[in-house]
Amino acid sequence: MIWKGVKQNVTMFTSFLKQKDAVVITGLAVALVVVFLFSLSIGQMFIPVKEIGVIFLKKLGLFTSVETDSVHETVLWSIRLPRLVMTTLIGVALGVSGAALQGLFRNPLVEPGLIGVSSGASLAVVSVIVFGAWLGLDQHSLGMSVIMPLFAFGGGLLATLFVMQIGRSMGPSSIAMLILAGVAVNALCGAAMGLAIFNASENQLHMFMFWTLGDLGGANWSALAVASPVLLVGSIFLLRYSNALNAIALGESEAFHMGVDVNRVKKSIVFLSALTVGTSVSMAGAIGFVGLVVPHLVRVTLHSDNKLVMPASAIGGPLLLILADMVARTMYAPTELPIGVMTALIGTPFFIFLLIRSRRKNEMVG
Amino acid sequence: MIAAKQLSITRNGRRLLNGVNLEVHPGKFTAIAGPNGAGKTSLLKAISGESTYDEGELTINGTPANKYNPSSLSKVRSVLPQSSHMQFPFSVEQVVRLGNNSHTTVAEAMELTGVTEWRRRNYLTLSGGEQQRVQLARVLAQVWEIRNYPRYVLLDEPTSSLDLAQQQLIFSLVKHACERNIGVLAIVHDLNQVVQFADNLYFLKDGGVVANGNPKEIFTKKIIEETFCCKVNVYHDPCTDCPYIVPDKNLIQSPLKPVKTVNA
């Protein structure tokens, strides 16, 4: 009975996607699992994949008699696993929200950073850190792990709504105005952050530098317990808009003619993007590039149908982020490079290569 | 049936539509013609649900239009705008599939509009006329499946960027859609084609209906000259058994610059 249900769901999923797309999604998912496991095993201390398997089974109450290195166990369970789970969830959120926002604004240049989500969320987080310290709140306390995502979400949402309001005042399709408004709001948030940093201590200054370039080192289970449901649910809800985004690609009026409630879709996507990206920023700072480049990579290498672009970005995002993080924490070990630097260093040359190659096959798509 | 009664629209203090009465019957081709700024597109947008109206009544298959949500409305009518700008490189087939997910219907719509051989081509690399044909395939696919209620296709200048042969193709497709009990409402500028293909014709001017009825009956020199403010000659074509007009270029009535006629 259960098998029949699963089979039905798989059939629905494979018929929903084209056969070729289903293969791509499966391939990307397998690659993500492999990279995830590989990333768990490497670092300052090498932990064999076989031992990782045993540690997991022991946590489930199986093979409890098998001996494992207790240091390996602690490193895996308290440091690497929460970090990788966080990296994966942030990658999913950035990939999906990037694809959704590009589709919504019908512009491949849009990314969460460009329309103010990231800077609004960053400003909110920086303010919470500075003013929270004045109020005596510890950055790693449970209260802060609840407050920070809330503020980051609020900041991201406010900044995006502000950008959209300025863009709308110049007409419904004024994309250039929207991007300029994004630049202005980003500059304003940057200035406000500068003011906050001006009042910051030496320790906070160091933290801010990593914050603006992205920092995945602060992962812990208590923060994840609060943030992961938000990131997961938000990303899954965003995936549901792939059909609506396909219609919007042709224009908002056309999408309405094809049965899309454009205003509701717009509000939902902006809200969910602010929620997921804001939460990501509260956990790991503003990680640029992933939301811009991953949906592009999917469009350039495969095609632009959002039924592929959205799920492929949801898997491609964490894939790029885990790879970048792996390099960032092993290249100059024990020192870590900021993750934002690595995503750009790894992604840019590959991206440029694909852009040049795509010009040659511009005639045929799909 | 789509029925508009005393439909009026005012925007920024300007009356765009002034008590328009219009009916679109299933299986019939209804055309709207009129000079620029007559309110044709405003009327089409109100009927499509894209914009609101201030006064009057609008019903689709007997149900007030405002009772439909975007999803239920899309099952009853599809709309072809004057032009659409796709931002991402979708294939032709992907664009047509936006209108309908059924493989059979999409294939049929592509075959009818003659775009099947381009199905894998990038939509963005097509010419304006080719893109218009792909859009027509999408619009037809949306309402092509036979249902237990009448469906409608609303076309805003569907032949504006097409050559003569493509224009003929579009009008034959419109007639073909009518045979499937689809009601078609189209804004058309080429009066000689309207009179050949349309079952009903509405002449609009200054937001109101000047004349409506069978195109062959209302296609008179007086009505056309009143509607378009220009001098025309109306002849009868024995081949098509339809009237046809030829504008008289020496007798243009311009409110800005009256032209004096010179007798030869």
If you had to describe this structure to a student in words, what would you say it looks like?
The complex is a heterodimer of chains A (about 375) and B (about 260). In chain A, α5 (about 115-135) packs antiparallel against α8, α5 crosses α12 (about 260-285) and α13 (about 290-300) runs parallel beside α15 (about 340-360). Chain A has about 375 residues and is mainly alpha-helical. Chain A is about 75% helix and about 0% strand. Chain A has helices spanning about 1-15, 20-40, 50-60, 70-105, 115-135, 140-170, 175-200, 200-215, 220-240, 240-250, 250-255, 260-285, 290-300, 305-330, 340-360. The model of chain A has no long low-confidence stretch (mean pLDDT about 80). Chain B is α/β, with parallel strands linked by helices. Chain B has nine helices and twelve strands. In chain B, the strands form three sheets. In chain B, strands 6-7-8-3-9-10 form a six-stranded mixed β-sheet, with helices on both faces. Chain B has a four-stranded antiparallel β-sheet with strand order 2-1-4-5, with helices on one face. A two-stranded antiparallel sheet of chain B has the order 11-12. Chain B is globular, with a radius of gyration of 19 Å. Residues about 255-264 of chain B have low confidence and may be disordered. Classes of the chains: A mainly alpha (about 375), B alpha/beta (about 260). The interface between A and B is medium-sized, with 27 and 31 residues.
Question: What's a quick, concise take on this entry?
Answer:
The complex is a heterodimer of chains A (366) and B (264). Chain A is mainly α.
